[in-house]
Amino acid sequence: MYKQIDSNKRKSLALMILFVLVIAGMVWAWAQYSEGGYYMIIPATIFATGMSAMSFFAGDKIALSTAGAKEIKKNDNPYLWRMVENLSITAGLSMPKVHIIEDSSMNAFATGRDPAHSSIAVTTGLLKNLKNEELEGVIAHELSHVKNYDIRLMMVVIVCVGIITLLADWMMRSFIFRGRGRDNNKGNILMIVGIVLAILSPLFAKLIQMAVSRKREFLADASASLLTRYPEGLASALEKISAQNIPLKRANKATAHLYISSPFKRKGMAKLFSTHPPVTERIKALRNM
Length: 289
Prior knowledge:
This protein is an alpha+beta fold and 289 residues long. The chain contains nine helices and four strands, in the order ααβαβββαααααα.
């Protein structure tokens, strides 16, 4: 389990470096084409920084509100509260805020910028249909996201995707309008290269986002098993969650990667663009532990 955790951390770091290289390549292409037009990147970076700051400090509130999660106290649901409290103590974490989502679909997610500002939300369907050790595995999975700073990492990835998309849009407009007055071969070649890069970069960024999210799910599964010492509990919970046919009422594409299982039912080619790895692979990895 420790080897899997270390491996996933290294792979996630490598994916983050790829983001930097993509952004650097886009800036280089623009600079070559505009012959020194770096100034156009400054306002885009300022805007992206402002948006990232807002998502960093208020992203958890937005995610909880979007999901329709309601914060509870110990007297509202002592069973859930004590389970979160006990696992938090075992993991050496501060007690996160506990939320319940009134939804018959089985799902859960964690959010927050760090362990001191974290929240866990579970659906009523999850509480109703899972056994004690299965629910414990799900809670341990979400606490692992908090302990491993996965939520912060995903915020960084989302910001990188936003910056790349914004730069790509600017580049497309600039290449189209500036290219009209150019008739030299170098300018035409750079324009073609830039347009291709601007088109493919957002898609490449989305693929990296999905890859990072998938790696963090495997990491959280391994960490949860390390916390509970019972991988079968989480494996059994994932089987029940994946077998359900009840969609999450307030599913949102922007927050889909936060849930323990994708809130969308994807079939065929759509599975390739899911932010979650196949449940069968996750269950196999857990049972091999």
